[in-house]
Design a protein that fits this description.
Elements: E1 14-16, E2 27-35, E3 40-41, E4 45-47, E5 52-62, E6 65-79, E7 86-100, H1 114-122, H2 124-134, E8 138-139, E9 144-146, H3 148-158, H4 180-183, H5 195-214, H6 219-228
Parallel strand pairs: 7-8
Antiparallel strand pairs: 1-9, 2-5, 3-4, 4-6, 5-6, 6-7
Helix pairs in contact: 5-6
The structure holds zinc ion (2 copies).
The site of one zinc ion has 7 residues, from loops.
Length: 229
Protein backbone atom coordinates (compact mmCIF):
# COMPACT_ATOMS: atom_id res chain seq x y z
CA UNK A 1 0.00 0.00 0.00
CA UNK A 2 1.46 3.36 -0.93
CA UNK A 3 2.04 5.42 2.12
CA UNK A 4 3.42 8.94 2.12
CA UNK A 5 4.30 8.61 5.75
CA UNK A 6 7.63 7.22 4.70
CA UNK A 7 8.25 10.54 2.93
CA UNK A 8 6.68 12.67 5.62
CA UNK A 9 8.42 12.39 8.93
CA UNK A 10 6.51 15.35 10.35
CA UNK A 11 3.02 13.98 10.12
CA UNK A 12 0.63 11.87 8.14
CA UNK A 13 -0.85 14.96 6.52
CA UNK A 14 2.48 16.31 5.36
CA UNK A 15 3.44 15.58 1.77
CA UNK A 16 7.01 15.70 0.57
CA UNK A 17 6.89 17.39 -2.83
CA UNK A 18 10.34 16.22 -3.98
CA UNK A 19 9.01 13.27 -6.02
CA UNK A 20 6.78 15.78 -7.80
CA UNK A 21 9.61 18.11 -8.78
CA UNK A 22 9.11 21.75 -9.61
CA UNK A 23 8.49 21.53 -13.31
CA UNK A 24 5.16 23.22 -13.91
CA UNK A 25 2.64 20.67 -15.15
CA UNK A 26 4.12 17.74 -13.29
CA UNK A 27 1.43 15.98 -11.26
CA UNK A 28 1.10 13.14 -8.83
CA UNK A 29 -1.93 11.53 -7.21
CA UNK A 30 -1.60 9.95 -3.79
CA UNK A 31 -4.05 7.78 -1.87
CA UNK A 32 -3.43 7.04 1.77
CA UNK A 33 -4.95 6.69 5.17
CA UNK A 34 -4.07 9.06 7.99
CA UNK A 35 -5.15 9.19 11.63
CA UNK A 36 -7.61 12.03 12.27
CA UNK A 37 -6.07 14.98 14.10
CA UNK A 38 -7.62 16.21 17.35
CA UNK A 39 -10.40 18.78 17.65
CA UNK A 40 -12.04 18.07 14.33
CA UNK A 41 -15.54 18.76 15.58
CA UNK A 42 -18.52 21.01 16.05
CA UNK A 43 -20.73 21.05 19.13
CA UNK A 44 -22.74 17.89 18.40
CA UNK A 45 -20.59 15.90 16.03
CA UNK A 46 -16.99 15.36 15.04
CA UNK A 47 -14.33 13.07 13.66
CA UNK A 48 -12.97 10.98 16.54
CA UNK A 49 -9.26 11.61 16.99
CA UNK A 50 -7.06 8.90 15.57
CA UNK A 51 -9.73 7.26 13.40
CA UNK A 52 -8.82 6.43 9.81
CA UNK A 53 -9.24 9.23 7.33
CA UNK A 54 -9.04 8.15 3.70
CA UNK A 55 -7.38 10.72 1.49
CA UNK A 56 -6.95 11.01 -2.21
CA UNK A 57 -5.01 14.06 -3.29
CA UNK A 58 -3.65 15.22 -6.60
CA UNK A 59 -0.56 17.38 -6.31
CA UNK A 60 0.24 19.51 -9.30
CA UNK A 61 3.30 21.69 -9.74
CA UNK A 62 2.42 25.13 -11.06
CA UNK A 63 4.64 28.14 -11.63
CA UNK A 64 4.26 29.67 -8.20
CA UNK A 65 3.85 26.55 -6.09
CA UNK A 66 1.95 23.30 -5.72
CA UNK A 67 -1.78 22.95 -6.14
CA UNK A 68 -3.32 20.28 -3.92
CA UNK A 69 -6.78 19.04 -4.90
CA UNK A 70 -8.29 16.27 -2.92
CA UNK A 71 -11.02 14.56 -1.00
CA UNK A 72 -11.01 13.19 2.51
CA UNK A 73 -13.49 10.72 3.93
CA UNK A 74 -13.67 10.40 7.68
CA UNK A 75 -15.93 8.67 10.18
CA UNK A 76 -18.30 10.83 12.23
CA UNK A 77 -19.59 10.34 15.72
CA UNK A 78 -21.95 12.55 17.63
CA UNK A 79 -25.49 12.87 18.84
CA UNK A 80 -28.79 13.50 17.12
CA UNK A 81 -29.79 17.15 17.35
CA UNK A 82 -33.43 16.15 17.90
CA UNK A 83 -33.38 13.11 20.17
CA UNK A 84 -29.76 13.00 21.43
CA UNK A 85 -29.33 9.39 20.33
CA UNK A 86 -25.80 8.47 19.22
CA UNK A 87 -25.17 9.16 15.56
CA UNK A 88 -22.46 7.50 13.51
CA UNK A 89 -21.90 8.21 9.86
CA UNK A 90 -19.14 9.57 7.69
CA UNK A 91 -18.23 12.83 6.05
CA UNK A 92 -16.55 13.47 2.73
CA UNK A 93 -14.92 16.82 2.16
CA UNK A 94 -13.23 18.22 -0.91
CA UNK A 95 -10.51 20.81 -0.85
CA UNK A 96 -8.28 22.67 -3.24
CA UNK A 97 -5.43 24.77 -2.03
CA UNK A 98 -2.44 26.44 -3.62
CA UNK A 99 0.77 26.19 -1.64
CA UNK A 100 3.24 28.84 -2.68
CA UNK A 101 6.98 28.25 -2.86
CA UNK A 102 8.50 30.08 0.07
CA UNK A 103 11.95 30.48 -1.51
CA UNK A 104 13.55 33.82 -0.89
CA UNK A 105 10.94 34.74 1.69
CA UNK A 106 11.44 35.35 5.36
CA UNK A 107 11.05 32.02 7.07
CA UNK A 108 8.52 33.57 9.39
CA UNK A 109 5.87 31.28 7.93
CA UNK A 110 7.35 28.28 9.63
CA UNK A 111 4.78 27.87 12.37
CA UNK A 112 6.54 24.83 13.77
CA UNK A 113 9.47 26.92 14.94
CA UNK A 114 8.72 28.54 18.26
CA UNK A 115 11.89 30.57 18.26
CA UNK A 116 10.90 32.04 14.95
CA UNK A 117 7.45 32.83 16.25
CA UNK A 118 9.06 34.77 19.05
CA UNK A 119 11.15 36.77 16.62
CA UNK A 120 8.10 37.46 14.56
CA UNK A 121 6.51 39.00 17.59
CA UNK A 122 9.50 41.26 18.10
CA UNK A 123 9.29 42.42 14.50
CA UNK A 124 5.57 42.83 14.70
CA UNK A 125 5.52 46.59 14.23
CA UNK A 126 7.49 46.59 11.03
CA UNK A 127 5.85 43.55 9.45
CA UNK A 128 2.32 43.98 10.68
CA UNK A 129 0.73 45.09 7.43
CA UNK A 130 2.61 42.56 5.36
CA UNK A 131 1.59 39.68 7.59
CA UNK A 132 -2.08 40.52 7.52
CA UNK A 133 -2.04 40.29 3.75
CA UNK A 134 -0.41 36.89 3.96
CA UNK A 135 -3.00 35.34 6.24
CA UNK A 136 -4.96 33.69 3.43
CA UNK A 137 -1.94 32.29 1.69
CA UNK A 138 -0.35 28.97 2.40
CA UNK A 139 3.30 28.19 1.82
CA UNK A 140 5.41 25.14 1.36
CA UNK A 141 7.84 24.53 4.16
CA UNK A 142 10.90 23.80 2.08
CA UNK A 143 9.77 20.75 0.11
CA UNK A 144 7.08 19.83 2.61
CA UNK A 145 3.43 20.59 2.07
CA UNK A 146 1.28 20.46 5.19
CA UNK A 147 -2.23 19.52 4.18
CA UNK A 148 -3.66 19.73 7.68
CA UNK A 149 -4.97 23.34 7.63
CA UNK A 150 -6.73 22.88 4.27
CA UNK A 151 -7.97 19.45 5.29
CA UNK A 152 -9.22 20.76 8.64
CA UNK A 153 -11.07 23.72 7.11
CA UNK A 154 -12.76 21.49 4.55
CA UNK A 155 -13.81 18.78 7.00
CA UNK A 156 -15.14 21.20 9.63
CA UNK A 157 -17.15 22.99 6.93
CA UNK A 158 -18.60 19.67 5.82
CA UNK A 159 -19.70 18.63 9.32
CA UNK A 160 -23.46 18.78 9.84
CA UNK A 161 -24.58 21.54 12.22
CA UNK A 162 -27.62 19.46 13.18
CA UNK A 163 -26.77 15.77 12.80
CA UNK A 164 -29.80 13.48 12.80
CA UNK A 165 -30.04 9.80 13.75
CA UNK A 166 -32.32 9.51 10.73
CA UNK A 167 -33.79 12.04 8.33
CA UNK A 168 -37.29 11.83 9.81
CA UNK A 169 -36.27 11.63 13.47
CA UNK A 170 -39.40 12.80 15.33
CA UNK A 171 -37.33 14.06 18.29
CA UNK A 172 -38.40 14.05 21.91
CA UNK A 173 -41.88 14.43 23.37
CA UNK A 174 -42.24 18.04 24.48
CA UNK A 175 -44.31 16.94 27.50
CA UNK A 176 -42.36 14.03 28.96
CA UNK A 177 -39.04 13.95 27.05
CA UNK A 178 -39.48 10.41 25.76
CA UNK A 179 -37.90 9.71 22.35
CA UNK A 180 -40.91 9.68 20.04
CA UNK A 181 -39.32 7.11 17.78
CA UNK A 182 -39.44 4.62 20.68
CA UNK A 183 -42.72 5.84 22.17
CA UNK A 184 -44.55 5.19 18.90
CA UNK A 185 -47.09 7.21 16.95
CA UNK A 186 -49.78 6.63 19.59
CA UNK A 187 -47.84 8.53 22.26
CA UNK A 188 -50.04 11.41 23.47
CA UNK A 189 -50.74 13.52 26.48
CA UNK A 190 -54.08 15.13 27.31
CA UNK A 191 -54.27 18.37 25.42
CA UNK A 192 -56.59 20.11 27.90
CA UNK A 193 -55.09 21.35 31.15
CA UNK A 194 -55.66 18.87 33.93
CA UNK A 195 -58.57 20.14 36.11
CA UNK A 196 -56.46 19.74 39.27
CA UNK A 197 -53.78 22.05 37.84
CA UNK A 198 -56.53 24.48 36.82
CA UNK A 199 -57.72 24.60 40.44
CA UNK A 200 -54.22 25.37 41.72
CA UNK A 201 -53.81 28.10 39.15
CA UNK A 202 -57.06 29.63 40.39
CA UNK A 203 -55.82 29.59 43.99
CA UNK A 204 -52.58 31.22 42.97
CA UNK A 205 -54.43 34.03 41.21
CA UNK A 206 -56.56 34.60 44.29
CA UNK A 207 -53.49 34.73 46.50
CA UNK A 208 -51.95 37.36 44.27
CA UNK A 209 -55.12 39.44 44.35
CA UNK A 210 -55.38 39.25 48.11
CA UNK A 211 -51.72 40.14 48.58
CA UNK A 212 -52.17 43.22 46.47
CA UNK A 213 -55.43 44.13 48.23
CA UNK A 214 -54.11 44.07 51.78
CA UNK A 215 -50.90 45.71 50.71
CA UNK A 216 -49.10 44.45 53.81
CA UNK A 217 -49.42 40.74 53.40
CA UNK A 218 -46.56 38.90 51.79
CA UNK A 219 -47.74 37.12 48.67
CA UNK A 220 -46.14 33.92 49.70
CA UNK A 221 -47.79 34.04 53.11
CA UNK A 222 -51.12 34.69 51.44
CA UNK A 223 -50.70 31.63 49.29
CA UNK A 224 -49.87 29.49 52.29
CA UNK A 225 -52.90 30.70 54.22
CA UNK A 226 -55.16 29.86 51.35
CA UNK A 227 -53.68 26.40 50.90
CA UNK A 228 -54.14 25.66 54.57
CA UNK A 229 -57.67 26.98 54.59
ZN1 LIG B 1 -32.85 11.36 16.52
ZN1 LIG C 1 -44.69 12.25 26.24
Amino acid sequence: MPNTRTHAPRGALVFDTRPLGRGAGSALTQKWTAPAPADLRLELVGVPEGTDVALEVRFEAVTEGVLATGTATAPLAGECARCLAPVTSSVTASFQELYLYADGRHDKHDKHDKHDKHEKHDRHDRYDEHEEQDDDERYLDGDLLDLEPAFRDAVVLALPMSPLCREDCPGLCAECGAPLADAGPGHRHEEAVDPRWAALKHLDDQATDQGQATGQMDRRAGAIDLQEG
